[in-house]
């Protein structure tokens, strides 16, 4: 990738000796981008990136011995892609995203802040698709963000893999929800269900899943509670039956 008449950009794996230069790219790029203020000191970022260079797959874009950009990959994520502001628009970021695709041919995900519209446009041009948006409560900056994905050579398999991950989490959550539905029953002031509370649950969930909306989520909540209570009733009946069949007459 020519950058001048006398220099070319080299993409190579980073070494520990690159940590300071990588940190400089990271900090400088963030400060010039549409991103929230950092929550860590420069020294903390350097220590963190040194560990990441050791443990993750990090590539740098270098010209004449100077690091201009870097990308950091884990097994299924592109966690970082930063280019020095003065080097933007020269195709270096595009070269790194194409490298990421080559290194992760089965696909990868990444997070980008919702406010960083230039980055979102960049990723869209390179075929990444939006999966979900969050309110930012799970990131350190507490700033809304967007999860993107490049689905790789087999998009159906990639997205089914993500669905499988979500279904595993759903299974755990539904199991916990059913258990809580069962144990709370004796503490209710009156038997039965609380329609107002269930609607409030659906509306709160809609803030996290706006694509579904409160009405659809209300139907989902209704099904979860209905089936959880049915399971609790069946479990109680089974326990009572077992206790009855095991009882003996006093001597």
Short description:
It contains seven helices and seven strands; from the N terminus they run βααβββαβαββααα. With 251 residues, the chain is α+β, with helices and mostly antiparallel strands.
Q: How many runs of DSSP E, i.e. beta strands?
A: 7
Strand content: 15-25%
Terminal CA distance: 93 Å
Stated plainly, the CATH topology of the largest domain is called Aminopeptidase
Structure commentary:
The protein has 251 residues and is of the alpha+beta class. It has 2 domains: 10-153, Gcn5-related N-acetyltransferase (GNAT) (Aminopeptidase), CATH 3.40.630; 159-237, no CATH class. Helix content is 50%, strand content 17%. It has a 4-stranded antiparallel sheet, with helices on both faces. Strands 5-7-6 form a 3-stranded antiparallel sheet, with helices on one face. Strand 2 (57-63) and strand 3 form a beta hairpin. The chain is elongated, with a radius of gyration of 26 Å. It starts with 9 loop residues before the first strand and ends in a 6-residue tail after the last helix.
């Amino acid at each position: 990738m020519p950058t001048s008449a006398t220099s070319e950009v080299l993409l190579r794996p980073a070494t520990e000796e690159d940590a300071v230069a990588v940190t400089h790219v990271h900090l400088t790029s963030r400060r010039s981008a549409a991103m929230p203020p950092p929550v860590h000191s420069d020294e903390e970022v350097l220590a963190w990136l040194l560990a990441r260079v050791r443990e993750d797959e990090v590539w740098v874009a270098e010209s004449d011995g100077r690091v201009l950009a870097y990308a950091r990959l884990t097994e299924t994520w592109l966690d970082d892609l930063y280019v020095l502001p003065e080097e933007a628009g020269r195709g270096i970021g595009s070269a790194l995203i194409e490298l990421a695709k080559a290194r992760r041919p089965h696909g990868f995900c990444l997070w980008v802040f919702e406010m960083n519209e230039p980055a979102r446009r960049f990723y869209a041009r390179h075929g990444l698709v939006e999966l979900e948006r969050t309110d930012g409560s799970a990131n350190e900056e507490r700033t809304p963000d967007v999860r993107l994905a490049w689905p790789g050579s087999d998009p159906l398999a990639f997205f089914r893999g993500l669905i499988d991950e979500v279904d595993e989490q759903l299974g755990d959550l539904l199991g916990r929800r059913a258990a809580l539905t069962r144990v709370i029953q004796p503490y209710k002031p009156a038997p039965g269900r609380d329609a107002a509370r269930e609607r409030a649950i659906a509306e709160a969930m809609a803030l996290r899943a706006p694509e579904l909306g409160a009405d659809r989520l209300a139907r989902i909540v209704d099904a979860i509670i209905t089936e959880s209570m049915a399971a609790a009733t069946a479990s109680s009946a089974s326990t009572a039956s077992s206790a009855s069949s095991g009882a003996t007459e006093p001597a």
